[in-house]
Amino acid sequence: MILTKYQEKLSTIPPPGCGCHPALLGVANLGIMAGLPEQKIFEDIRAAIPRGERRLPDREISDTIKKAIFDKEKNATTWQYIPQKSTSVINDGKSKLKWLLEQAKISEEVDLWESSPIRLDWTPQEDTARFLSAMFASDDLVFIGEHLELGVIGHNIRTVKEWIEYFNNGGTIAPFIIINPLNGKPAEKKSGEGITYRGDANVLTFRHCMAEFDNLNREDQIRFWAAVNLPVVCLVDTGGKSIHGWIDIQKLIGVNTYDDWQHDIEHKLYEQGLVPLGVDPACKNPARLSRLPGHYRTEKNNYQRILWLANKGVTQ
Predict the structure, then answer these.
(1) Are 200 and 258 in contact (CB under 8 A)?
(2) Whole-number Å distance between alpha carbons of 185 and 152
(3) What average pLDDT does range 279-295 have in this prediction?
(4) CA dihedral of 3, 71, 65, 44, whole degrees rounded to 10
(5) Exposed, middle or buried, 37 (CB in 10 Å: 0-12/13-18/19+)?
């Protein structure tokens, strides 16, 4: 994927004097990410630069490649999330968001991918099993299904071990997953009309919350997740315009009950912090649906996939 983008960028380098130099850094970044030797990148760039008003000196190309190498090493060591024990009230969300975006050192998907603590060196089709193993324990009960379908134990609510076996045997990967493990017990719906197995009252362990933006362009979404000071464990490409960020709330503050969730996550983290920054306010419940990596969205002609992953796996 990165090598293809590298070749595409090479073919679109403008002539010197017409925006050539900024374009070279993008090519060099991709070349370094693809693991190409420095000399190979230099030769490719030199051959790809069209004639312009002046001949670009070899030193400018070499300096650009060295900058790409430096930036890669710098990003790999400085993009860290520091767990917080409290959340302050954000009164001016627009200004705070603007400040956050200006702090980010990453704005492109390839840089995000390269900075992932866990190397994403597998195909999108392998994402589902990798994701489930990283985010849940093998005996966790997890809902995977369509947006509005009822939760049924043994059908769309299974243990992670059962789900992985199902997918490894060719089972269809549904588009959505509930972000927290379920207890497998019936609970009254919030409407009071019947029971459910996949609602907020069915959550067994309050492990994750999820956040996304509806009105922020993709580059700024990447900038946000690169700069925000939260214990993010996974970033998921929805196959559309959004990125879903999974946050490990146990590294933020201990949440053991639904009352804890309402006070510390729904009220403090979301209403006082994330929502003023522009995060979708509908994301704040513990049985929230997120897009499941590995599902192919036919209407978008694109996979839902992992963009960045920090979790090595949940302790059994």
Answers:
(1) yes
(2) 11
(3) 97
(4) 10
(5) exposed
Element (H, E) at 73: helix 58-78
pLDDT score of 78 more than 50: no
CA dihedral 287, 290, 296, 298 (to 10 degrees): 90
Cβ neighbours for 68, distance < 8 A, ≥ 6 positions apart: 25, 28, 29, 31, 32
User: Can you list the positions of beta strands (E) in 78-226?
Assistant: 141-145, 157-159, 176-178, 187-188, 195-196, 208-211
Partnered with residue 306 across adjacent β-strands are 236
- What domains are there in the chain, each with its CATH number? 2-78 (no CATH), 93-309 (3.90.920)
Does 73 have pLDDT greater than 60?
no
60-69, 135-144, 148-157: segment of lowest average pLDDT? 60-69
Nearest-CA neighbor of 117 among 291, 315, 313, 279? Answer: 313
Per-residue pLDDT, 218: 95
